[in-house]
Design a protein that fits this description.
- This protein has about 550 residues and is an alpha+beta fold.
- Among the domains are: about 25-60, no CATH class; about 355-465 and about 485-510 and about 525-549, no CATH class.
- About 55% of the residues lie in helices and about 5% in strands.
- It contains 19 helices and nine strands.
- The protein has helices spanning about 1-25, 40-95, 100-115, 120-130, 135-145, 150-165, 170-180, 185-200, 200-215, 220-240, 245-255, 260-275, 275-290, 295-300, 310-320, 325-340, 345-355, 360-375, 375-390, and strands at about 25-30, 35-40, 395-400, 400-405, 420, 435, 455, 490, 500-505.
- Strands 7-9-6-8 form a four-stranded mixed β-sheet, covered by helices on one side. The protein has a three-stranded antiparallel β-sheet with strand order 4-3-5, with no helix packed on it.
- Helix 7 (about 170-180) packs across helix 8 (about 185-200).
- The termini are far apart.
- Keywords: Membrane, Transmembrane, Transmembrane helix.
- It holds the Pfam family HemY_N.
- InterPro entries: HemY_N, Mms48, TPR-like_helical_dom_sf.
């Protein structure tokens, strides 16, 4: 609006001035080359303005002619850059589509048209990766590292290549350099932390957590949780060598993450070892309310040294009352009751779970209870066979793998705080457990040998006394002594029950017609499993029983 007003004012002034000049009498005389030219003042002014305009146009034309080569070069350079950017765009699209030839062609065009563009170097590196040219990719990434604007991007590319070569030392050095160049680079900070966790460098990992929090790479809650995990890992490493230091670390970890079961278990054990029973009980009870776990129950049961088995059972019952009807509480009571030979209490705790959907650990406890309570080895074998088909129990699981103990970092990826207490997909390796088909009828012909069927099963949770397995001697079922068929054979490594169980089918004998495949067996069975059936021609082979000879 102001511009329009100013234009109108200027136009009015010019019109007024032109009218005033036209009203004034007078002539302008020009003498040039012996000629006299006369005209009025207004015509003279117009001629002067036209001459000025012509002169200015001539000057502009001369300047354009002088600058035209430079202008033409600038236009050509701009066009070249546009073509280079178009080549980069098409190359990145080709890489995303997995078109190696198109990616290489566009990378070549981009390098020719826009060699200094940062994306050109990235396109060259990715095209080399797509073609499998690792040396070319690393060379492109090193060129990027030499430039300040692409240094972190080049370091990330070199880090990926080092990981592909499984060069842990180079990968860690590259990640540390990237953290120094850009503390806020999340990938670099995470890579350094994972490398430190995999190497067991807990102090270095704690320092990395502080740097990440200061750089706002992680928030306060994540920093507290990761710090608690690292303190727990450090406490576990020092529990045997330096109990006071381990206790301080575990207590600090519990303060940061009360729900962290391993921290509470370590703090409870070490506090109980120092005679501070109240503190140990308080720490374990707080963690149990959030996440009931067998390790907490075991630590709570053994908090007071010198307690009898009955006293330990009472302590476990007190802990289980904090989470009524929770399966872990009932299993803990059952374990302690069996150890205390209080079979009525064991039945009260376990029968409710056994009536619904018993897990493998429950089946093993019921087998031990049957064997200890009444020497009913047949019933024990029923439960052992049932354990093979029972649902699995929760375990410490990370990245699809299960471990008997909690670990601060994944053995697959190295990431911290990924182990969760849940039903695993697969378990880490352990000794094999071979189980005979106790449901096979000895009077029926055996089926031909078939492929081994592997059934994955959880190892039973260790009770307060790992070595307190019941011992049951075979009783004769006929006038002459008869060795009972074996239920379980263990491999030479006895400490841990393997997660993998192989169930072979007996081989055919005497050319007998194979019996049809059995479906799912429903208990109770027709005949007790410890009945060997009719005598065979050969004397039965002696085997070792799971619960004793």
């Amino acid at each position: 609006m102001v511009g329009v007003i100013l234009f109108l004012v200027l136009l009015a002034v010019l019109a007024t001035g032109a009218a005033w000049v036209a009203d004034q009498p007078g002539t302008v005389t020009v003498v040039w080359l012996g000629r006299h030219i006369e005209f009025d003042v207004l015509t003279g002014l117009i001629a002067v303005l036209v001459a000025a305009a012509v002169i200015m146009a001539l000057i502009a034309l001369i300047k354009w002619l002088v600058a035209s080569p430079r202008i033409a070069a600038r236009v050509m350079h701009r066009r070249k850059i546009e073509k280079g950017q178009e080549a980069i765009t098409r190359g990145i699209v080709a890489i995303g589509a997995g078109d190696r030839r198109a990616a290489e062609k566009h990378a070549y065009d981009a390098d020719r048209l826009a060699p200094n563009a940062p994306l050109t170097l990235l396109l060259k590196a990715q095209a080399a990766q797509l073609a499998g040219d690792r040396a070319g990719a690393e060379q492109a990434f090193r060129t990027m590292v030499d430039r300040p604007d692409t240094k972190v991007l080049g370091l990330r590319g070199l880090y990926v290549e080092a990981q592909r070569r499984t060069d842990v030392v180079a990968a860690r050095a590259i990640a540390e350099e990237a953290v120094k160049a850009s503390p806020s680079a999340t990938w670099a900070a995470q890579a350094v932390l994972e490398q430190q966790g995999s190497a067991g460098d807990w102090d270095g990992a704690l320092a990395s957590i502080e740097r990440q929090y200061a750089a706002r790479v992680i928030d306060k809650d994540a920093a507290k949780r990761l710090r608690a995990v690292l303190l727990t890992a450090k406490a576990a490493a020092l529990e045997e060598r330096d109990p006071p230091a381990a206790k301080a670390l575990a207590v600090e970890a519990v303060g940061l993450a009360p729900e962290l079961v391993p921290a509470a278990a370590i703090a409870g054990r070490l506090a109980a070892a120092d005679g501070d029973i109240k503190k140990a009980s308080r720490v374990i009870e707080a963690a149990w309310k959030i996440a009931p776990h067998p390790d907490l129950a075991e630590a709570y049961a053994h908090a007071r040294h010198g307690d009898s088995r009955g006293d330990q059972l009472k302590r476990v019952e007190t802990l289980a009352r904090l989470t009524p009807s929770h399966p872990e509480g009932l299993l803990a009571i059952g374990r302690a009751a069996i150890d205390a030979s209080d079979f009525a209490a064991a039945h009260r705790a376990l029968d409710e779970l056994a009536a619904s959907a018993p897990t493998q650990r429950l089946c093993l406890l019921m087998a031990e209870l049957s064997a200890k309570e009444s020497n009913d080895q047949g019933r024990a074998r029923e439960w052992m066979a049932r354990a093979l088909r029972a649902p699995r129990d929760p375990a410490w699981t990370a990245d699809g793998q299960a471990s008997d103990v909690w670990l601060p970092a994944s053995p697959v990826t190295g990431k911290l705080d990924v182990f969760q207490w849940k039903v695993p997909v697969a378990e880490l390796g352990g000794p094999m457990l071979h189980v005979d088909d106790v449901l096979a009828d000895a009077s029926e012909p055996a089926v031909p040998a078939g492929p081994v069927v592997e059934i994955v099963a959880d190892a039973p949770q260790a009770g307060p006394e790992p070595d307190s397995k019941p011992e049951i001697k075979s009783e004769p079922v006929a006038p002459r002594p008869i060795e009972l068929p074996a239920v379980v054979e263990t491999a030479p490594e006895p400490p841990v029950v393997s997660p993998a169980v192989a169930v072979p089918e007996p081989a055919s004998e005497n050319g007998a017609k194979p019996r049809p495949a059995r479906g799912e067996t429903v208990f109770p069975i027709a005949r007790a499993p410890d009945d060997p059936g009719p005598d065979g021609n050969a004397e039965p082979k002696k085997r070792m029983s799971f619960f004793g000879n």
